[in-house]
Amino acid sequence: HKWVYTFGDGAAEGTAGMRDLLGGKGANLAEMSNSGVPVPPGFTITTEVCTHFTKTDGTYPDELKAQVEDALDKVGKTTGRRFGDMSKPLLVSVRSGARVSMPGMMDTVLNLGLNDDTVGALAEDAGDARFAYDSYRRFIQMYGDVVMGLEHHDFEAILETYKDEKSLNLDTDLTADDWQTIIERYKQLVVDQLGKPFPQDPRDQLWGAIGAVFGSWMNARAITYRRLHQIPESWGTAVNVQAMVFGNMGDTSATGVAFTRNPSTGENKLYGEFLVNAQGEDVVAGIRTPQAITEEARMESSAPEKPSLEQAMPEAFQEFRDICNRLERHYREMQDVEFTIERGKLWMLQTRSGKRTAKAALKIAVDMVDEGLITEEEAVTRVDPASLDQLLHPTIDPAAERNVVATGLPASPGAASGEIVFSSDEAERLANQGKAVILVRIETSPEDIHGMHAAEGILTTRGGMTSHAAVVARGMGKPCVSGAGGIRVDYQAGTLTSAGKTLKAGEIITIDGANGQVLAGSVPMLKPELSGDFARLMEWADKVRRMRVRTNAETPADARAARDFGAEGIGLCRTEHMFFDAERIGDMREMIVADTEEGRRAALDKLLPMQRSDFVELFEIMAGLPVTIRLLDPPLHEFLPKSPEEIEEVASAIGVSKTKLKRRLEQLEEFNPMLGHRGCRLAVSYPEIAEMQARAIFEAAVEAGKRTGNPVRPEIMIPLVGLKAELDIVKARIDAVAETVAKEAGQEIQYDVGTMVELPRACLIADKIAESAHFFSFGTNDLTQTTFGISRDDAASFLPTYQAQNIFETDPFVSMDIEGVGALVKIGVERGRQTRPDIKLGICGEHGGDPASIAFCETVGLDYVSCSPFRVPIARLAAAQAAL
Ligand code: ADP
Ligand code: MG
Ligand code: MG
After folding, report:
1. Residues 446-489: pLDDT tens digits?
2. Do 159 and 165 touch, CB atoms closer than 8 A?
3. What whole-number distance in Å separates Cα of residue 683 and Cα of residue 689?
């Protein structure tokens, strides 16, 4: 069995395609060697050895020793060096490398092969004693830390003490003799701490390092990382052993890292940093300020006096640039490379596809199509849909100064500035005067919807990422910082205080939903760029996706925003939101408090024209695209006042006694409103409410149809159905209203009645429900609650604990639980289609805008997903990727 694959000298036994066996680093080292890129020779011990090692408690396959020896010979022949040789000693690096880059794994060990004897040989061979002893002390330090488990800072302390003794400042001030003294002290540290000397035999050193890499696959950090990122233990890591090249051999040597394009803007310009006379991770460690690679970047950098690589080493630079271009064309992807220059000679040490910002990902994908490197479909796969969020909102200019007064959670992306307001009514009042406001609340509740709508952004001092403020703000696409616990809000005084600083209502603040910062004053912003590259990528996505993308919207502003983002209809219009409006809530409350059907009908008659005009406007904006309107869903008590003051106020406003209002409140009180008198249960017990809504919908459809010339075919959705009889009773009322309105209007009315599938029972009897329902919309928010038996509003107290213990891999309210909730959806789809093959199927709720959930929706063949306006582009791209 082959356990070892060699590379270097223009050839390799592996290829980039062998990532599973060789790990990412090993596969790409092989690929580079094969394509003639200068790579120091070496070999990769496969991930299969890791699996063997893990299973057998740290032993190796029998053939391994011999295969490693052969590979070492080959490296020796290529380099003209041998392990432990007294004139030309071979030194190697030992590098881990899993299939995907994985923090938690063992760090790289450099300069392995040095010992008390070979260090002298290296000094002589290089003609540079300082270099040799510097390399040896680095080796003892790295090996001691990484392989032998000693503390890095114990070594650092020895170095610092020595520098103090000698009044030396920089590492570069130390001579060969200085390093020799330090090496003695380092070796003594090893003996003191471990009771055994630092290993002198290069082979012992090598197997020690190999064992440490394989052992690190099962260390606690790596295990946790794998669990969080769903990386199977069975993958294992590879070990790369590679001949050292030296960037620390004086001023004609250097080491650096680079991206083939700018990773933050995506510009097609080589971008990177290097250090002269340095080794390995000195660049990342920030010991010295690195220098720019290109002349252009040098001039724009903060240290333009330091020469660029282009200037300092023009030949090596030219070759490096050519190689970067070749690698990019070869991989057809932006590369992140590591290199070292040893006395003017360039060596490549790593290449992989580079991480980038959302903005860069977009630009690179589109540019590469224009350059003929990739197809439009490939471009669609190159951008992470979730990352688009960053592009759809204004962001704070990175160059702007930030006067941070507090930090909370980045609950909803985007940034906004405005006057501080502490109440939703005030927010609405000021917004109507054209002012920009930030609504600041301890926490928000459904009664704050109008204030949240009016505000540019929302700041709360309590609550997490799934608090009311966070969920609603994300739905609205408004920036939100939640749970800024350092801020004290005093509603009475109209002030907020943080870190000793007090800000009054009316003063300007800025919130940054990207990082949770609260800033004093206004800050320059960058506008989102929705044309250009963004529009082109979206167009390509639209060409390949099968599922339609609709939006959840009930206000004209949201509906318009969603259309601008490319929504193809409304998948969920939550009518209850329309009743929280200050103008309407009085009539709504009157209706709820009424004792008789007549009383209720009288109040509903007042609501009808308002509701109708809402729908006319939505239908007009949607211009013939489908619109699904859900009948009233929440329990009625949500519309009623809570505090004694409010009760008093409301009682007089709607003209009933306080006692009567209180009695009604008591009647409506429920132990568990989520499972209480809500959804279709309201329509069953108060059919006049559903009738009013149906009338408003049909009359609006007639009117909007006339006005726009686009016939409107509304979809009426009945929530929380668990029994076919519920649906039939409510549907009969709707059909009757349709008939009446059709007669009145003297025209036929086309419409569909369907149901929101959000109870497990509804999924299980979907075949029966489909006898009456023209469409299903999976309401996976409630379906998640009812499947798990978890109330989302009460989950905050234990969900963090659950997540900390990895009981949930992801929050099931953010990404659909495919195993449980998804299985129910699948049953619902199959049984629904059994009865009605052409039944329209969609999903609404948070999951409709979540890429992983969207991918699942594609596999079960839903017709559309519906999500909040700002997630529409994310859904378009995710649906396209799911279809590819
Ligand atoms: P990581 O996965 O953390 O990037 P690497 O294995 O790439 O770790 O090693 C880190 C750095 O060590 C490299 O970027 C390179 O500068 C240096 N290095 C590794 N192997 C060698 C080598 N054979 N010769 C010179 N430098 C090396
Ligand atoms: Mg690396
Ligand atoms: Mg619901």
Report:
1. 788 889 989 999 999 988 777 788 878 887 778 999 999 999 99
2. no
3. 7
**Binding-site entries:** 574, 630, 758, 779-782
Distance CA 16, CA 427 (A): 58
- What is the CATH T-level fold of the domain 545-635+670-883, as seen in this structure? TIM Barrel (3.20.20)
Ligand 1 centroid–CA 93 distance in Å is 7
| Residue 395, phi then psi, degrees to nearest 5 | -130, 160
User: CA triplet 371, 377, 380: central angle to 5 degrees?
Assistant: 90
Residue 287, pLDDT score: 65
| Known binding residues for Mg(2+) | 758, 782
Give pLDDT tens digits for 407-432: 999 888 889 999 999 999 999 999 98
Give pLDDT tens digits for 44-90: 999 999 999 999 999 999 999 999 999 999 999 999 999 999 999 99
Say how many Å lie between the CA of residue 819 and the centre of ligand 1: 41
Query: Which of 699, 637, 866 has its CA nearest to residue 647?
Result: 637
The secondary structure of residue 90, as a DSSP letter, is: -
**Distance between CA atoms of 876 and 851, rounded to whole angstroms?**
10
Burial class for 372, CB neighbours closer than 10 Å (0-12, 13-18, 19+): exposed
Q: What are phi and psi of 241, to 5 degrees?
A: -115, 125
Tokens of 38: 């200068």
CA-CA distances (angstroms) from residue 405 to 520, 524, 657, 879? 6, 17, 47, 40
Strands 437-441 vs 457-460: parallel, antiparallel or unpaired: parallel
Neighbours of 808 (CB within 10 A): 15
Q: pLDDT exceeding 90 applies to what percent of the chain?
A: 80
Please check the confidence at residue 813 and state whether its pLDDT lies above 70.
yes
**Is the distance from CB of 508 to CB of 521 less than 8 angstroms?**
yes
Calpha distance 338→324 (Å, rounded): 11
SS3 state of residue 657: coil
Distant-in-sequence, close-in-space partners of 569: CB < 8 Å, separation ≥ 6 = 548, 550, 551, 622, 625, 626, 627, 628, 864
Q: Is 186 exposed, middle or buried (0-12, 13-18, 19+ CB in 10 A)?
A: buried
d(CA 66, CA 245): 25
Q: Would the CB of 407 count as within 6 Å of ligand 1?
A: no
Give distance in angstroms: CA of 782 to centre of ligand 3. 5
DSSP-based three-state secondary structure for 863? coil
Structure tokens at 79: 């380099």
Compute φ and ψ for 722, nearest 5 degrees: -125, -15
Structure tokens at 797: 């107290």
Kindly list the domain boundaries of the chain, sorted by start residue: 4-243, 254-356, 393-526, 545-635+670-883
Prediction ipTM score: 0.96
CB 475 within 8 A of CB 449: no
Structure tokens at 292: 């720019």
830 CB near ligand 1 (under 6 Å): no
The count of other CB atoms within 10 Å of the CB of residue 371 is: 12
* Mean pLDDT across 559-575: 95
Catalytic residue among 573, 680, 763, 844: 844
Name the CATH superfamily for 254-356. ATP-grasp fold, B domain (3.30.470.20)
Which range has the worst mean pLDDT, 446-455, 498-507, 677-686, 738-747?
446-455
- Cα angle vertex 551, ends 550, 553, to 5°? 145
Neighbours of ion ligand 3 (CB under 5 A): 758, 779, 782
Angle at 449 between CA 631 and CA 799, to 5 degrees: 90
Ligand 1 atom closest to the CA of 246, numbered from 1: 25
Ligand 1 atom closest to residue 350's alpha carbon, by position in its atom list = 7
Specify whether the CB–CB gap between 307 and 290 falls below 8 A: no
Q: Which CATH superfamily is domain 4-243 in?
A: ATP-grasp fold, A domain (3.30.1490.20)
Q: Which CATH architecture has domain 393-526?
A: 3-Layer(bba) Sandwich (3.50)
